[in-house]
Specification:
The complex is a heterotrimer of chains A (221), B (217) and C (245). With 221 residues, chain A is mainly alpha-helical. Chain A is built from nine helices and no strands. In chain A, helix 2 crosses helix 5 and helix 2 packs antiparallel against helix 7. Chain B is mostly helical and 217 residues long. Chain B has a single domain, classed as MetI-like (MetI-like fold, Orthogonal Bundle), CATH 1.10.3720.10. In chain B, 79% of the residues lie in helices and 0% in strands. Chain B starts with a helix and ends in a 9-residue tail after the last helix. The chains are: A mainly alpha (221), B mainly alpha (217), C alpha/beta (245).
Chain lengths: 221, 217, 245
């Protein structure tokens, strides 16, 4: 056991770097995934059938295919088109495309539960479609979707571990390195598992507080 | 080699993909059902176990669990085959989510119906088997479809433990032909088709067993 | 000159003509109630007047302007028409006061302080000031409708449209809302109301306009229309909606 702990301490700088990368990726993709999700959700409400159809197709495709396929497609496919990007960029783009599709779907589910006459009232008051979206639809839809959206963030954290498969030096990748050197596979991977559990717990606590904060009378989920 | 050729070659791996998916779904159902039944018990120890189980298996990334099972366990003398490792990992994790879905459905069963069954003379096991479970399954359909398609989307990880499903075929092909773009696009298309077929299948099953008044929300 | 003039308004849906040539006038300070059987087109008419629905043909003159012509500024018109819905349609994520100030701040570009002042005036007028920080989910039906009226009045519209304002309320709350609208009526607020509630109609109207199958059949004061009409359609309608105890 002491040898194992000695190894952890010795490799600490790498582990820290890996944790930083994991955190970085998770934060970036959560932000871009949410903004992207809102944008795509906005498109699903478009009055032009062709926009709605293509948006639905996009959402359908990214929800219906594995995340790994998205990442591999970008990582191995783009160089063929002459575009070469860092693994971080590929990871961010791939995850964003994936996550924004799911977020858009959650927002749409919430939207279907809205009282549509509120939208009629907004039109009757003189608000434009965009204003109605910004002032009436979005605030309500985001509140109603908080549980799904925060669950997605937790999922994002767990999904960062997949990034190592496209050579992104995240926490899991670093732990692999250590295991390949000291052959303590069991201890190393168990430690990695515990670290992820701890990280997830932090996010869950933050999520609960957020849910309490945005709860309004009339928004019981 | 045309795009069509690529599709055919990759489709060879589809058999394994479907096999892994179905096996994992069965495992997940078994685990989820077991956990849901445990959830109806009042013992403190059981509740503690459930809380711990849920915490662990909803917090671990699938890939990490897979590596612990396949690469880690041999370190303490337990060797598990690639296929079983994959199915076990997916089963344990999806079981945790399915348990949640089932728990909600069980709670939605009318108390009065259970009372009536008790009054008829049924014991707890019979009540669960004949009254609760049939209703629970029908009300869990959306949740199950969600979880099963999730399992399908995790199967690509199987290549890391050597199972020759679609992803593995794709990587071999890509290494030889260097046509990553078309190959992974084809992979996406095949998965999408399998996904759609699965959904259609489940919905057909749901329709076959649907009861008026007990449709999923 | 009348505030609103409707000339031969026709509205068809899928080949079926719901409005078949409506002629109507509303002057400032007047209050008219539109009544008729379900499907006669009265709600459709209301929604055509603020262009929530597009008329198929005919003219609508609002404040001297023909608003059925193509290049009209819809937003300005809608800001000038207050709309109260049957199911309240309050913005669920905003308090009563915020519901009232939203339009003032975002459409009329008022500063928060001014907007609150204006909202306060209307809140006090309908007796909702003490509930101004509550959310719609915390209000009773009658309170919700009063809040909706505040939201409409806060914009200082030239006219108030009410679409079945009491139809979603039980008798007691209905009375509460009738009292409020009656108060507005006595304050000479220009109103156009659609309802099948004869009790409401009597207390808030200068005249009642009876519509049947998409055309105006008669217009008269409540008492005469309810009890002394010769037209069998009108007689039959009011037999069924008035409590003759």
């Amino acid at each position: 056991m002491d040898a194992f702990i000695k190894d952890l301490i010795a490799y600490w700088p790498q582990i820290l770097a890996g944790l930083k990368n994991t955190a970085l990726l998770m934060v970036i993709m959560s932000v871009t995934g949410l903004s992207g999700g809102i944008g795509i959700f906005y498109l699903t409400l478009s009055k032009h059938k062709i926009v709605r159809t293509w948006t639905e197709a996009y959402i359908s495709f990214f929800i219906g295919t594995p995340l790994l396929v998205h990442l591999f497609l970008l990582y191995y496919g783009l160089p063929e088109l002459g575009i070469s990007l860092s693994s971080l960029t590929v990871a961010v783009v791939g995850f964003t495309l994936n996550v924004s599709a799911y977020n858009a779907r959650y927002l749409t589910t919430a939207y279907n539960g809205l009282d549509k006459t509120e939208l009629e009232a907004a039109r009757a008051q003189g608000f434009t479609q965009t204003e109605t979206f910004r002032l009436i639809i979005l605030p309500q839809v985001l509140r109603l979707s908080v549980p799904s959206l925060t669950n997605q963030v937790i999922q994002n954290l767990k999904d960062t571990s997949v990034a190592f498969l496209i050579q992104f030096p995240d926490f899991f990748a670093q732990m692999q390195e250590i295991a390949s050197v000291n052959f303590q596979f069991f201890k190393v991977y168990m430690t990695a598992g515990l670290v992820y559990l701890a990280l997830v717990s932090i996010i869950v606590l933050a999520a609960r507080r957020l849910e309490k904060h945005v709860a309004l009378p009339g928004f019981q989920t | 080699m045309t795009f069509w050729n690529i599709l055919i070659i990759l489709a060879r791996g589809a058999g394994y993909t479907i096999l892994v998916t179905l096996a994992s779904i069965s495992a997940g159902l078994a685990v989820g059902l077991l956990l849901a039944v445990l959830g109806t018990m009042q013992h403190k120890a059981v509740k503690l176990f459930l809380a711990a189980y849920t915490y662990i298996f909803r917090g671990l990334p699938v890939l990490v669990l897979l590596f612990i099972v396949f690469f880690g366990l041999p370190g303490i003398g337990i060797r598990i085959s690639p296929f079983v490792s994959m199915v076990l990992s997916l089963g344990l994790i999806s079981g945790a989510y399915l348990a949640e879905v089932f728990r909600g459905a069980i709670a939605a069963v009318d108390r009065d119906e259970i009372l009536a069954a008790e009054a008829m003379g049924m014991n707890r096991a019979e009540i669960f088997l004949y009254i609760t479970m049939p209703q629970m399954f029908r009300m869990s359909v959306p949740g199950m479809i969600n979880e099963f398609t999730s399992i399908l989307k995790y199967t690509p990880f199987a290549y890391t433990v050597g199972i020759p499903e679609i992803m593995k075929e794709a990587m071999s092909l890509a290494a030889i032909t260097l046509r990553g773009l078309e190959i992974y696009l084809a992979v996406g298309i095949i998965y999408f088709i399998i996904y759609k077929l699965f959904v259609l299948l489940f919905m057909a099953l749901e329709k076959r067993f649907r009861i008026p008044g007990l449709a999923p929300e | 000159m009348a505030l609103i003039e409707v000339k031969n308004l026709v509205k068809t849906f899928d080949g079926k003509a719901v409005l078949q040539g409506i002629n109507l006038e509303l002057s400032e300070g007047q209050s008219k109630v539109l009544m008729g059987a379900s499907g006669c087109g009265k709600s459709t008419l209301l929604r055509c007047l603020n262009l929530l629905l597009s008329p198929s043909s005919g003219q609508i003159i609002f404040k001297g302007e023909d608003i059925t012509r193509p290049k009209v500024d819809i937003r300005k018109i809608r800001e000038d028409i207050g709309f109260v819905f049957q199911d309240f349609a309050l913005y669920r994520h905003l308090t009563v006061e915020e519901n009232a100030t939203l339009g003032l701040r975002k459409l009329k570009k008022m500063k928060m302080k001014e907007a609150v002042e204006k909202a306060t005036y209307e809140l006090e007028r309908v007796g909702m000031f003490e509930h101004r920080n509550k959310y719609p989910a915390q209000l009773s039906g009658g309170q919700k409708q009063r809040a909706a009226i505040v939201r409409a009045l806060a914009m200082d519209p030239a006219v108030l449209f009410l679409d079945e304002p009491t139809s979603s309320l039980d008798p007691q709350m209905s009375r509460e809302v009738v009292n409020v609208i009656n108060k507005l009526f006595l304050d000479n607020i220009t109103m156009l109301c659609v309802t099948h509630d004869a009790f409401l109609a009597k207390y808030i109207s200068d005249t009642i306009v009876f519509i049947d199958e998409g055309v105006v059949v008669a217009e008269d004061i409540a008492e005469r229309l309810f009890y002394e009409s010769a037209d069998p359609r009108i007689k039959q309608f009011f037999m069924s909606v008035i409590d003759h105890r």
